[in-house]
Amino acid sequence: MASFNQFKQFVSSHPETVPVPALFIGHGSPMNGIETNIFSRTWAEQAALIPLPAAVLVISAHWYTRGTLITAMDLPPTIHDFGGFPQALFDVQYPAPGSPALAAEAAAMVRKTEVLMDHDWGLDHGAWTVVRHMYPDANIPVLQMSIDYTKPPAWHYELAAEIRALRKRGVLILGSGNMVHNLRMLNWSMIHGGGYDWAIEANETFKQLIADGDHRALIHYEQLCHAVRLAVPTPEHYLPLLYILGLQTGSEPATIFNEQALGGSLTMTSVRLGLAD
After folding, report:
1. Residues in Cβ contact with 126 at an 8 Å cutoff, skipping those fewer than 6 apart
2. Which residue numbers delimit the Extradiol ring-cleavage dioxygenase class III enzyme subunit B domain (predicted)?
3. Which CATH fold topology does 2-273 show?
């Protein structure tokens, strides 16, 4: 209840005419969750630019379900959904509260589908590895909404528009994935920097379309160039970007940050809606 009281206090003290910015974060390796590097520092810098939100709602590439669910527990567990990493990463706990009341409010906004209350998931590494750098005190409610793998890209973009009003209610909506994400073609000799020509081409294509506001082309990404089809061999890391673009209003600026290619076939390129530089 304390977490939802915080939500209500925010709403009462902030005008609804000013939406909280929204973020698409290229999250990359789970190790970014415990490392201080250019990516994690920039996540913290972005948080400092954004007015303190009442809650964070994450759409993560790593919660891919049949149907749409939203976490609705008071204390979401920290999920270590990976293997082969140092014990220090598995030892991390991010004890942010949840908000069942906010989960219910968000679900009620959606008309495209029934959003089910979930009490089993928690915060996967697409969420906590990023948010712990942004809000290290873990004192802001964090929820996750899943991605329905049975639905086409346009459906996800349209669903995002239905929850846009949450931004005026003090909620930071954060999509977590990677624009270019082809692990089958990862080159470990380039893991500290560098991208294949096709990865750079795809990244530039995405950036230009975002700058142009051409959401239709981004939704129908499979109809773009061969480089994009290599960049998005499966949709789960790309779809969180469409959720964030679906939140964009009017001429709201889209700012690119953390633009870097790694391992040949991965980019960390991220987007902020709102707060023009």
Report:
1. 27, 58, 60, 61, 62, 63, 176, 177, 240
2. 41-251
3. Protocatechuate 4,5-dioxygenase; Chain B (3.40.830)
3-state secondary structure of 86: coil
- pLDDT, residue 106, reads 97
Residue 272: CB partners within 8 Å, gap ≥ 6? 21, 22, 23, 46, 49, 254, 255, 257
pLDDT score for 18: 80
User: Whole-angstrom Cα distance, residue 158 to residue 166?
Assistant: 15
Fill in the amino acid letter for 197.
D
Residue written as token pair 């270590």: 80
Asked if 76 and 142 count as a contact pair (C-beta separation under 8 A), the reply is yes
Residue 85 carries which DSSP code? S
Q: How far apart are CA 152 and CA 159, in angstroms?
A: 11
Task: Please enumerate in sequence order all residues whose Cβ is within 8 A of that of 262, keeping only pairs 6 or more positions apart, or say none.
Answer: 28, 190, 191, 192, 193, 194, 195, 268
Written as one string, the DSSP assignment of 106-131 is: HHHH--SSPEEEESS--B-HHHHHHH
pLDDT in tens, 174-233: 999 999 999 999 999 998 899 999 999 999 999 999 999 999 999 999 999 999 999 999
The β-bridge relationship of strands 254-257 and 270-273 is antiparallel
- pTM of this prediction exceeds 0.90: yes
Asked whether 159 and 246 are in contact (CB, 8 A), the reply is yes
**Which sequence spans correspond to the domains of the chain?**
2-273
* 256 closest CA partner among 19, 46, 41: 46
